[in-house]
């Protein structure tokens, strides 16, 4: 009897020069200086301004049974948890599943509305993945970012599938996907162009 | 009366992490350590092993009326021209048009078979572009690379269109396209997936 387990995928939006966020993240600007006007993420316009056209790619992310993210993706708080912060996604986050946040600072889980619970993992990427796998069961585990977190998982050989959404501008500086990752052999699974984004899916060999 | 002039396009093949060549270029290995077995360019397999499928993209490159390349794309000779070297492309290169090679070391033009003449330009990227435009007339000027050369043209605002061919592997090190280039606003003109390559075309605003 074969046990079905989900895959581990990384899913991240990058500029044409490979940055997933600009410099100078703040509470008002989760993606830093990403070329937008500061009212939203220019990188993620494909998700928010063109959601209908990109529904398949959005659903593939949200279908995961558990999520992993780095602390800087979770929020702008650095060091100790010195103020209330429950992510950028409001009281009813879109994950509807356990979401594991990598941090050096322990914190009790936060149960949100709609099935999302934030768990704070202080013992590294492999421990977070083990917890996420256990939570996801037969479903996939999504590594959402930021690039620093995803790069650690890629370098450790823990990612089965890499999805890049390439936005039509360059940033010139910021946090770069695939930086510091040893050479990877990829298999191009699919590539789809939408109005102002190109979706690339690779199997990592 | 409007004078028709061609556009200036950059056309380059990159790894999924944005490198157009690996480290350690040699005469036997024009693209350095690009992950191949040393007998050819792994980055450019789409051109050579799958030419039929990618005929449109190849023709778009070769339709240019003049070409520009950096000296390291032209060959492995560094410093003075201390040995005979007429490019990697044999006696009848595929360009069939003037090709301008940026170098710090003056050299007389080399007329090859089939209409290709190599001109060696020692007074910088703008001078090379002016010569290429004059040679191309109403046709396009192609900036072929390497990344260092293309990045200089992009940073100087001299490129109208950027074509990236994204190969399904990462290199982890090498010469990176768009590195050191100030933020650019791009317009996604087209995106096409072939078997093991994704072709992206951007208009540079």
Order of the strands making up the biggest sheet of chain A: 5-6-4-3-7-1-8-11-10
CATH architectural label of chain A: 3-Layer(aba) Sandwich
Number of helices of chain A: 5
In the CATH hierarchy, the third-tier topology of chain A is known as Dihydrofolate Reductase, subunit A
CA-to-CA gap between the ends of chain A? 25 Å
Task: Explain what you see.
The structure is a homodimer of 205-residue chains. By secondary structure, chain A is of the alpha/beta class. Chain A is 18% helix and 29% strand. The first copy, chain A, has 5 helices and 11 strands, in the order ββααβαβββαβαββββ. In chain A, the strands form 2 sheets. Chain A has a 9-stranded mixed beta sheet, with helices on both faces. A two-stranded antiparallel sheet of chain A has the order 2-9. In chain A, a hairpin with a 5-residue loop joins β5 and β6 (117-121). At the A-B interface, β10 and β11 of A face β10 and β11 of B.
Write the layout of secondary structure elements.
The structure is a homodimer of 205-residue chains.
Chain A: E1 8-15, E2 19-21, H1 45-48, H2 55-62, E3 66-70, H3 71-74, E4 98-102, E5 110-111, E6 117-121, H4 125-136, E7 141-145, H5 147-155, E8 161-167, E9 175-176, E10 186-194, E11 197-204
Parallel strand pairs in A: 1-7, 1-8, 3-4, 3-7, 4-6
Antiparallel strand pairs in A: 2-9, 5-6, 8-11, 10-11
Domain Bacterial bifunctional deaminase-reductase C-terminal (chains A, B): 8-194
Protein name (chains A, B): Dihydrofolate reductase family protein
């Amino acid at each position: 009897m074969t046990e079905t387990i989900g895959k581990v995928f990384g899913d991240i939006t990058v500029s044409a020069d490979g940055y997933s966020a600009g410099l100078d993240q703040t509470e008002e600007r989760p993606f830093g200086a990403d070329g937008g006007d500061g009212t939203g993420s220019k990188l993620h316009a494909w998700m928010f301004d063109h959601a209908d056209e990109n529904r398949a790619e959005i659903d593939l992310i949200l279908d995961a049974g558990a999520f992993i993210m780095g602390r800087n993706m979770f929020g702008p708080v650095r060091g100790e948890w010195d103020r209330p912060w429950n992510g950028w996604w409001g009281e009813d986050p879109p994950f509807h599943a356990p979401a594991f946040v990598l941090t050096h600072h322990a914190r009790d889980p936060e149960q949100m509305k709609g099935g999302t619970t934030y768990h704070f993992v202080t013992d590294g990427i492999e421990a977070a993945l083990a917890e996420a796998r256990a939570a996801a069961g037969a479903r996939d585990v999504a590594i959402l970012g930021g690039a620093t977190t995803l790069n650690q998982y890629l370098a450790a050989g823990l990612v089965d599938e890499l999805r890049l959404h390439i936005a039509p501008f360059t940033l010139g500086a910021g946090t770069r996907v695939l930086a510091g990752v040893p050479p990877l052999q990829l298999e191009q699974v699919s590539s789809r162009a939408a109005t102002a984004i190109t979706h690339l899916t690779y199997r990592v060999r």
